[in-house]
Each structure stands twice: as structure tokens, then as C-alpha cells.
Amino acid sequence: MRKSVMLPSAFSHHTQRFxxxxxxxxxxxxxxxxxxxxxxxxxxxxxxxxxxSTSTLSNWLAPKRGHSxxxxxxxxxxxxxxxxxxxxxxxxxxxxRMRDHDRRIPAKQLQIAADTIKMKLRGQKYRxxxxxxxxxxxxxxxxxxxxxxxxxxxxxxxxxxxxxRIIFELKGDLHEQIVRDAFRxxxxxxxxxxxxxxxxxxxxxxxxxxxxxxxxxxxxxxxIKLPLNVTAGRxxxxxxx
Length: 241
Prior knowledge:
- The chain has 6 helices and 9 strands, in the order ααββαββββαβββαα.
- The chain is an alpha+beta fold.
- The strands form 3 sheets. Strands 3-6-1-7 form a 4-stranded antiparallel beta sheet, with helices on one face.
- Strand 8 (204-205) and strand 9 form a beta hairpin.
- The longest helix is centred in the first third of the chain and has 22 residues, at 13-34.
């Protein structure tokens, strides 16, 4: 039975609070000294402050900053300056790459594709990496609303995925055919056409794969400007000579 600490009313509120905390701390120390050694260790372990240098897992289906300002629709531009960033498998052994056209993919469809891969590989030892993030807000107006009156209200988050961009990567002790089936089903859940990529495959610049015989220098080299008489000779004549 816990005894209540009675303090004189002559003390102020802060003094009474301090004396009450001191009495409670003294009882806690006395109770801890009576406990067995194993319970003392558990009590000390619980009281310790947990610390980790790594950040917590972030949500890749919504930005951390949340909904603060309205984003423009935008368009995933095709890199024509020679960049092949995001077109190769980096962390995993296999990847799912978009190959037809850039588009804006909703976060809900990305979540469905990720759940499809996890369901197909249930019971296997693997790790799934996501290479895109749904950080673009999509705003819509109601049906039969006249033009104007602002951009509309927030509807959902989406990701701008450029052409030849790796969306998912997979790493684990898995057979290649099993991974192909999982990525095939996931690609059917997403809009567009996708292809299977392995670690070590050549990068892609735009829609052209930089394979053997094709170098970045050749693709970045400007086109040869032909003389005017050569280009004019290719134009069909409208009247006979």
C-alpha cells in the first residue's frame, strides 16, 4: 500500500513539488535496491536513452515536408546532355526499367506494384529497393466545374518517372525466372511498358542503350553540318529541269 506524503501547507507550490519528487525518488531507489540483479539490469536498460546515427525509414509514397505548396504539372524531360543517371541497377541484382515513355505514376499504383512483388516472393529471402519517390502533388477540380476558380484541391501524390528509369531493384538468393515473373506482374499493374534489367547491363541515354560500339562521346558529339548544296540536292524538285 502506497503511503501519501503529507507536507506542511506553509511551503510554496514549487517547494512542495520539489519535496514530493525527492520523496518519490527515494522510495524508487529503495525499491530498486530490493529487486534481484536481473531485474536491476532490465530496469537500467529500459531507463537508458536509445540513440542511433541512422535515420528512420522514410515514406517513399509521400514527401517528408507534406503538402505545403501546389506543384506544377511538369513533365519528365529526356536528358539529352549525355546523362545516364538512374538507368542502371545499383544496389540490387535485378531491376524493373521503364522503356516506352515518361509519365506521372500515382503513389497508389506504385504501392500496388510493390505489394505484388512482395506477395509473389512471399517466404523468400530478399530485399526490395525503390528508386523513385512520389513527391509531386496532383490537384483536381470537381466534375462539371467551370474554368477558372483556381488550380483545385489536393487529390493524391505522384512520381515523375523519366524514360529508361529504374523503378524497383531486387537483391537476394533468388532464381532469375522467379524475379522475372514478379517484375512482369508488377509491370502489368503499372501504366506503360517495362523491361527486365540485370546488374552490369549497359546504361541507357534517352532510349538508346550505350552498348559495345556505342560510346558516350559519339552520342554527345554534335551532328555534322552538311554544305548547303548537299542539303538542297536532297529536296525534290517541283518542276522538271
